[in-house]
Structures are given as structure tokens and as C-alpha cells.
Amino acid sequence: MQEDLVKKIQQHPKYLELVRKRSAFAWVLSLIMLVIYYTFILLIAFNPAWLGKPVSEGMITSIGIPIGMLIIILAFILTGIYVQRANTEFDELTKQIRKDVK
Amino acid sequence: MRNFLIFSGFSLVIFSLSVFAAGPLVTGEVQQQPLNVSAIVMFLLFVSATLGITYWAAQRTKTAKDFYTAGGGITGLQNGLAIAGDYMSAASFLGISGLVYAKGYDGLIYSIGFLVGWPIIMFLMAEQLRNLGKYTFADVASYRLQQTPIRTMAACGTLVTVLLYLIAQMVGAGQLIELLFGLDYWMAVVIIGMLMILYVVFGGMLATTWVQIIKAILLLGGATFLAVMVLSTFGFSFEEMFNKAIEVHKDHDKIMAPGNLVSDPVSAISLGLGLMFGTAGLPHILMRFFTVANAKEARKSVFYATGFIGYFYILTFIIGFGAIVLVSTNPEYLQADGSLRGGGNMPAIHLSHALGGNIFLGFISAVAFATILAVVSGLTLAGASAVSHDLYANVFKRGQVDELQEMRISKIATVLLGILAIYLGIQFQKQNVAFMVGLAFAVAASANFPVLILSIFWSGLTTRGALLGGFIGLFTAIGLVIIGPTVWVDVLKNAEPIFPYKYPALFSMAAAFLSTWFFSMLDNSDSAIKERAAFEAQDIRCQTGIGAEGAITH
Asked: Any CB–CB contact under 8 A between A96 and chain B?
């Protein structure tokens, strides 16, 4: 990439907006996923018995089962949230930057 | 093209002959099943269909870009299915349902670990890979660094990961097919090796992608049917299913809680890290992001893949519990000592027989075979690309290479890798290879992932740091597994492990990241200064896709 193009894009306000918004969004979502997963891992490590407790008195299904299923579903939902915003808002910003620097 | 017809006709004939030749000889210690006609018919259908696709793909695979990335024209949904196909190996289908069957809840821990890497790939890697790369993940890692050392290192990481994974799949495949189809072990391994060479050499990424898509649909369909049948036996009540399961399982209600899979906090965290970030360093998965047209399609691929894979893991959990009730109580599936016929990977297979008779057993067996075939094809393509694109074209020829010559090298590499996989598959027949997938994940997490993620996000990375860090990660991961309980005790039969933990990722990833950081910081060479300065331009391409490789239209 030529140096003047680099400079031009770097100072473009839309570019700064794109980088700021997307980085923040991506890292926050990553952090949410990491916190969810490692909370689960730490529960397994330090309190496995709690995960084995029945969801309610007299039942067999343990708390760990819905929690596990929920983590799988949340992982999917988080990717969906990202795609939704990235494929509309972020791609729109990118399109405008591309148009402006052409 | 004529070669393709001759070669594929030949392998079909060999396959049919060997099946019928081996059929009546089923005897002995390995306990092969009687010849399963419906399984063989369905498998032959799958093979014929995929060879047809390969023929079609071969006519559309003319350039290196076609060969490595199917021309870059795969859609997000197709690629999502293909990624899911790559990821849902026979090891996850049979292995995880087998783990649930044996240990209950512990199986779910593995499934979750295998899944949670995907959102991270989505947020931090998918579009970045698409915008920066061309054919292999080494393109991204070496984008602003010195080509020769970084590509050599990335190719080493790729080949080690691919070979470990290949051996595990080949051995698993041979044993499974011996059991299901009544075929000799070595014949099974040779057939898989030959078919995989055919797909990749003639059809490249386009054929490999469609083989993955078909297989993913078959596997998702088969697993859905199994799970629905299981649930219907319990009136669609999970509570009822768990209730019956703890009645008959030898560990009773212990299977509803985490058990001895992870016995201490360090192991739990280390396993979690390895599973999560190993996914983000698997070369055959990373390569799939170059097959789509742009960042938008790359994101969609991960979204669909995460959905399919998550759904699939929920199914395997139901299948495993269903098998506890329906398989472990049926003497038809048990040996005299009460253990499962055919070993710990067989619950899903026996369950299909229990629920749908011989026809459905045949279908699930054929799907399992197809699964292995598709996964080894993807692995071989990734390994061959590392040899031809990274080692040959960019290291050996310094980028001055004729595209057709590069493609020829990748085809030769495919054939050699295929032969090597067949050879190793036969050599490792009697070995315990269960640790190899875990080791492949550990190497991917410790050698490939750190260099890749730092090259995308950290401007301070230099060639020296990446090179040393990558190799330190690679050797730490391998070394710790060798002196740990899985190899030192289980394989080499020593009394006590030198390194106490089964899973190395916590230590090997830390070693890789710290040494990469440390040696990059200390690097004040002229090239290091240039490399840091080149980050700006890289980051702009990474963020906007301006200058990225586009798709070509046919």
C-alpha cells in the first residue's frame, strides 16, 4: 500500500470511528465469552459438586446440564450479535472509507 | 483428466473386491462385524457421488487460487457447513458420544471446550485472516515479517498439527472400518488414503469443500435422527432419560456432575485453554477463511459453523445418554465381561442399530466413514499447501515461482502426505493414539495461534520474536506431553510422570507468548524497526480489506 494512501486512510474520521467501535465491540464480546467459559471451568475445578446438584428438589437433572447447554447457546448468540452489527454498521463505514479514498 | 478416471475406477474396483474378498474371512480377535451390506452400498453411493464432484471440480481447478481456495467464491453458508464438516470429525461424533456414555457429564465439558473457541475466532480472527491472507495462515503471520524464517516455522507448526491429527484419524478409521465393514485394517487405511489423494489432487479445495458439505449434512441429519429417536423413547423428557440412565450406569448419579476427567484446577484451566485456542490454530480450519469472497462472508461462515457445531454437540450429548440406557443394557452389544463390543468409541454405532436396525446401522457406519474421509482430505490439503505455497514457493524459490509449477508441487506433496499417512496409519495400528488429537490441539494453541494473533494485533512483533516464540511453543507443547502422564506413563510405561499434568496448554502457551514478547522487545535490528513501522499499513488492510485478495469469477 502506498504511503500517501496509508496517511489518507489513517486520518479519515470514519476510519478512526470504525477502528474504535469495532475493536471495543470485538474485545468486549471476547471478554464476555472468556468470562462465561472460565467461570464454568473454575466451577469444574473448585466446586464440581455444585454443578451436580439437582435443578430442584427431587429431580435428577443437575444444575450443570442447563448451564452447559446455555453456554453452547450463548456462544452462538454472541457470534450472531457480532455478525449482525459488523455486516451492517461496520461494513457501511468501510464502504464509505473505500469510496472516499478512491 | 484421463488419469483421474483411471485412478478412481481402479480404487472403486479395489474397494469392492476387497470388501467381498474380506467378507467371509471375518474371524479372530478384532471381532469384525459380519459383512454389512447396507453400510457398503451406502458408502459406495457416497464415494461415487464425491468422485463425481471431484470430476466436476477438476475441470474448474485451473489456477493455484482455484486449487488452494476454490477460487475464493464459496458462500458464507457453504463455508460454514464445510467448516462444521472439518470440525465434526469422527473423533467428536464417536469419541464424545463415547465419553458421555462412559462418564456422563464430563463429555459435555469437552463439547463446550471445543465450541467456545469459535466466538473468539469470529471476534478476533475471521475477517482479519480474510483481509490479510491469500492461501495459508503463514501468509498472515509473515505479512510484514521476513518470509523465510516465519514461513518455515509456520509450515513446521502446520505439518506437525496435520500429521498428528492425520495419524489419529487414520488409526481410528482403520479400526472402525475393520469392525463395521468386515475389512482388513490395512485395506481400510489404504482405501481412505487413496480416496483422499484423489479428492485433493484432482479436485483441490473445491472438491474438498463439497465433500465436507455433503458429509456435514449427512452427519447432522443422522445425528438428529438418532437424538430424536432417543428422546421419543423417553416421551421427550430429559428428566426421564437421566432418571433411567443413572439407574443403569455403574456410577449412578455421579454421571450428572463433573467427574475425574479434570481432577485439579491447573488441569481444568490448561485443558480449557488448549481446547479453546487450539481451534483457533488448526491450519485446515484457518485455510477455510480464504475460500470466501470477503470479510462479510467470512463472518457469516463462523456464525453458521458455530450454530451447526453447537447443535451437533447437544445431539452427541443426547446420543451418549441414550446409549447408556439403550445400549449398555442390551447383551447383544456387550462382551462377556460387560464391556462394549468394539471398544469405547462404539456407543453411537450400536445405538443406531438399537434404534433403527441394520439399515440405520449401515447409514451411520457409512456416515462415520465419510466423516473420516472428509476430515483427512481437508488435513492433507492444508499440509500440502504448507509444503507447496510456504516451503516451496516462498522459502525455496523466494516467491519467484511459476503458478503451474507450484500447483504441481502441491499435488506431489498431497500424494506423498497421503502415502505417509497410510504408512503411519499402519505403523500405529496397535498404539494408543488417543492422545494425538489432544497434542495436535496443544501444538496448534501453542505454536500457530500465538504467532498468528500477535502478528495481527501487536505492532511490536518482530521476526526474531515470532520465530523463537513459535518454536518454543511448539517444542514446549510436544515436550510436556512426552514427559507427562499420557505418553511417559500410558505409552512408555514408566511408573511416574516427570511433568504431572495431562494438558500442557497453560504452560506451553505462556512460554510461547512470553518468549515472543521478550525476544521482540529486545530486538533492535534494522529489520525489526522496519517491521514495526510496517504495522500501520498492515492494520489498514486488516481493518478495511483495502488491497485484500478478491474472489475470481468463473
From this structure: no
